Amino acid sequence: MNRPAITGWLLVLPAAALLALFTHWPIVGTVWDSFHATPKGSNPAPFVGLENYQVMIADEVFWKSLWNNLWFALGTIPISIALALVMALWVNSAMRGRIWLRVAFFTPTVLPMIAVANIWLFFYTPQYGLLEKLTTGLGFGTHNWLGTESTALACMIVVAIWKEAGFFMIFYLAALQSIPPSLAEAAALEGAPRGYYLRRIVLPLLMPTTLFVLVNAVINSFRLVDHIVVMTRGGPNNATSLLLFHVYQVGFSFWDTGYAAALTVVLLAILALAAIGQFVFLDRKVHYQ
Amino acid sequence: MTIRSLWRAAAAGLAAIALSAAAQTEITFYYPVAVGGPITKTIDQMSADFEKENPGIKVKPVYAGTYQETLVKAITAHKAGTPPTTAILLSTDMYTLIDEEAIAPWDELAPTADDKKWIASFYPAFMANSQTGGKTWGIPFQRSTIVLYWNKELFKEAGLDPNKAPATWKEMLEYAQKLTKKDAAGNVTQWGVQIPSSGFPYWLFQGLKTPNGVELMNAAGTETYFDKKEVVDALQYWVDLGRKHKVMSPGVVEWGTTPKDFFEKKIAMMWTTTGNLTNVKNNAKFEFGVAMLPQAKRRGSPTGGGNFYVFKKATKAQQEAAAKFAKFMTQPDRAAQWGIDTGYVAVRPDAWETKRMKDYVAGFPVAAVARDQLQYSVAELSTHENQRVTKALNDGLQAALTGAKSPEQAMKDAQAEATRILRSYKR
Fold first, then answer.
1. Does residue B20 carry a pLDDT above 60?
2. Which residue of B has its CA nearest to A121?
3. Do the Cβ atoms of A141 and B186 come within 8 Å?
4. What are phi and psi of A66, to 5 degrees?
5. Nearest-CA distance from B57 to chain A in Å?
6. Which residue has the higher pLDDT, B133 or B84?
7. Is the confidence at residue A117, as pLDDT, over 50?
8. Which of B254, B270, B425 should be substituted to probe chain A, the one whose Cβ sees the most A Cβ atoms within 10 Å?
9. Beta-carbon neighbour count of residue A193 at 10 Å?
10. Are B393 and B374 in contact (CB under 8 A)?
11. What are the start-end ranges of the H helices in B269-406?
């Protein structure tokens, strides 16, 4: 090996070692554990092959959580990205008080999720919660938002969007600021309408950011469960149970670590598939400068 | 100073540390509360008092979050080989801790005749979830029970006797009907009664099934009876309050906001833990009453709260120190003070005979309601694979309360799930 190559390897070594130790090795360990039963007391865990996966197929809560999670992803990802884009375009324009607007949009991101969930819990409270005050003020009846199976998941989606949109806005804002003003001037000179400029110049230039935000949004939709723990604990009757929450419950409430490992493998597989899909297929359509 | 004298000083210092370490036993004490707040101060104070009385022992309290988080931390630490010496954990997690081979029985930790007397000094209702297979695994420390709180002002407005709580299920329904108010548009502005059902509805449900004269499991914790007719009937009563009689908010009602609902006068009666007594006393801007839960065939309310456990992998010296600590913490006078400070039920009858407690009850008589209810308590739902079995019941209860399933179907499904979970324990 020549010297530059050695130097190169040495330079990536610390990062590679940390990744291997804290990411790759645990993944291998999880896959290994998923083929074993949960050890009872001081007995070692016996090898059970695919039994954990068979249990999973029969586990109604797993399927419910999986569907919930898909709906949760479908509900949060497009809306939070669209909102982030609109907010970024708005606070990027020259107007008074835009600093305050930016701060206001970004605040939800800064707050810890546990605190956020406690605030929203009171927004949704029947009768005297903020939402109820609004709806009853408009003449609608009262509704137990978190206590009804049909509305609980939607409530969780709204909290996630509120939390996420401001975070994604920052990325869009940074990208918008990096677009050279000369492009806008040239477009204006050529007589291009604003909508045309936005559609044909700004949005294509934002595509790399959109891809990055999309990847993050997908990961977050499977990762964000703090508010579930605080607000509904997966209830009522598993209506808001998401995959990661189910993993936590099986692993740390039921102490069925073997089965929890199998569930984690499925979660990893879903995320890996999503990431591969995004990077391989969408990447081709993204225009990099 | 020469190099040599420096070394000498360092060596002397090290030796001193080693000596004091040999003379001192350190015990770690996991306690389920988040950092800060008045409770940690009380615990710190009690630990300091204990150290003063027992110079050879050092207590290191670790504030570990909720009960659930504390259990997770304790079991994880146990699996890693470095468990806490002792911890306050839910009494109902006894089987989980036994199955993990994490805890040592008190019969081994405290074997003398005096110790036996100490173990026998607690309310039998609290020991129901602390003993199994002829052994004692937990010592009651902070225990609670469910009681009914009512708003005397709203009772007066509705033309009810403000000093009389409903004594039976029928009365509670009648009262609740009178106490439910609607505005001109037909929207309810005040519910008659509220039994929270989020998170752990199984606990509240035991305040319904026990009065209906039925047990949810056998004493060995290997069998459940969720689909018995009395259980289904008790659930039917709960569901009907919301869906048929419309005197309680339909669907699942949040546990955490229930006291707030009560303070805001959105509900006239609430079921919640005695652990909320101090909270209600400080925050209710109206006169309130506290009563035992209403009866159907009999009275009854589940117990709840935390026990002292000692971990198996701790050293012998640590275990002995932990036993001393538990005895210290549950002395009658200290148990009385703890009850007054927190609202938990003082865990032994002689604590209620102390001057401190007598004075307190004389000034605030409702503090004794929970104690008087204890004689009607039965063992709380606790089985092997406890969390999993409990979840099966919780899901069933919520499915019935939200109307997704009939009470009968919901309990049948919960029973089937529990039987499946417990199949390997039935030998």
1. no
2. B257
3. yes
4. -65, -50
5. 30
6. B84
7. yes
8. B254
9. 10
10. no
11. 277-283, 316-329, 332-342, 355-363, 369-373, 386-401
Q: Please, what is the angle between helix B386-401 and helix B229-243, to 10°?
A: 40
Tokens standing for residue A49:
């092959």
Same domain membership, residue B270 and residue B251: yes
Q: Which tokens belong to B383? A: 């089985």
Q: Which residues pair with B86 in a beta bridge?
A: B29, B310
Q: Map out the domains of chain A as residue ranges.
A: 47-285
Q: What is the DSSP code (8-state) at residue B345?
A: B
Contact B249 A126 (CB under 8 A): yes
Torsion sign over Cα B169, B170, B173, B175:
negative
Rounded distance between C-alpha atoms, residue A18 and residue A2, angstroms: 25
A chain contacts of residue B399, beta-carbon cutoff 8 Å: 236-237
pLDDT exceeds 70 at position A149: yes
Query: What pLDDT does residue A18 have?
Result: 94
- Helix B169-179 with B229-243: angle, nearest 10 deg: 10
Does the beta-carbon distance from B398 to A249 stay under 8 Å? no
Identify the burial level of A231 via C-beta atoms within 10 angstroms of its C-beta, where 0-12 means exposed, 13-18 middle and 19 or more buried: buried
Residue B197 lies in domain? 146-302+379-425
Confidence of residue B1 (pLDDT cuts 50, 70, 90): very low
Q: B252, A148: Cβ pair inside 8 Å?
A: yes
Question: Quick one: B207 exposed, middle or buried, by C-beta within 10 A (0-12, 13-18, 19+)?
Answer: buried
Partners of B253 on chain A (C-beta within 8 Å) are: 144, 147
Q: CATH number of the domain that B351 lies in? A: 3.40.190.10
Cβ-Cβ contacts under 8 Å between A and B: the total is 93
What tens digit of pLDDT does each residue of A240-270 get?
A: 999 999 999 898 888 888 899 999 999 999 9
Closest Cα in chain B to A236:
B398
Do B339 and B410 share a structural domain? no
Non-local (6+) Cβ contacts of B292 within 8 A are B147, B148, B165, B299, B301, B369, B372, B373, B376
Q: What token pair was written down for B300?
A: 């009854």
Minimum-distance CB partner of B100 among A41, A122, A139? A41
Q: Please provide the DSSP assignment of B230-263 as one string.
A: HHHHHHHHHHHHHHTS--S-SS---STTHHHHHH
pLDDT tens, residue by residue, B90-109: 998 898 899 888 999 999 88
Q: Which two tokens stand for residue B365?
A: 């008589």
Contact list in A for residue B99 (CB cut-off 8 A) is: 40-41
Structure tokens at B90: 């839910």
ipTM of the complex: 0.74
Q: Taking all residues of chain A, what is their mean pLDDT, rounded to a whole number?
A: 87
Interface of B with A in 359-388 (CB under 8 A): 385, 387-388
The answer on B323 and B293 residing in a single domain is no
At the top level of CATH, which class does the domain A47-285 belong to? mainly alpha
Measure A237 CA to nearest chain B CA, in Å. 5
Model confidence at A188, in pLDDT bands (50, 70, 90)? confident
Tell me the pairing of strands B139-151 and B131-132.
unpaired
Q: Report pLDDT for B9.
A: 59
Match 């919301």 to its residue by tokens: B242
